[in-house]
Amino acid sequence: MRPHHERLALAYEVLEGLSVGDAVGEALSYRYYDSRRLSGFQDIAAGTVRFTDDTEMAIALCESLSLLKSVDESALAWAFASRFKRDPDRGYGKMARRILEEIGVGSPWEKVSKHAFGSGSYGNGAAMRVAPLGAYFADDLADVVRQSTRSARVTHYHPEGIAGAVAVAVATAAGIRARGMTSTQAAELMWDSVLEHTPESRVRRMLEVARDLDEVPPEVAARELGNGAEVSAQDTVPFCVWNATRCLADYEEAILSAIEVGGDCDTNCAIIGGMVTAYAGRERIPGRWLEVREELPRKT
Ligand SMILES: [Mg+2]
Known about the structure:
single chain; mainly alpha
């Protein structure tokens, strides 16, 4: 097992891929049809392309792992709520705002999360932030499942919300484990791991559909699998895993092709960016994108 500081370095490396995907996906989402032309970010000052709630929550998760080395739900709930309170205008969804506000005034996370939407949220918010956790626990996939489940439940108690987070965390962990393999071998390992570990759910059934899709254009895959337009885990995660595994050697193409299918662009690109970076490393993220993205807080 790798020591804590190495695992944390992997988590923060994946956070880079997640946050660049988030920021670039958000910035180009409004003109997604023209995103390739705009993706050079000409005349955009360094550090000015803002990331959104996906990155905010992923930072809270990384800081929590840095301190505690595992997921403690109450501590994580508090970390999410504190970041939200400090900077609420980051594109959080309506329900996320309500949950984080309630936790922030002292309501127990379990009560708040369990009753969101009646039976817990199945939004894509637990999946969007979880990739660094997958990197941190990559040495032990069973632990990835346990820890990602805990991290999801804090805000997404519904089994679909949890399944989406488990799938992304396991795919990310498999990406780390696949470093040094060819991208084809890595994609195989990611799919095998995800299907083995994702609990029975619609997320999992659509992941099976996704794996069996022939080489179709992304817009066809998105029509089949969803593109996050419903902001649910089921509607988001299968396409993201499909697109990431298809473009493991090419971060830029993974992000631009995801933006072109529309839907929840920042979250799709955050998830995909994290998974691709797990395998390909930070050096495959376009330098210009790293330069224009607002700075991440220093690693704690
Ligand atoms: Mg967002």
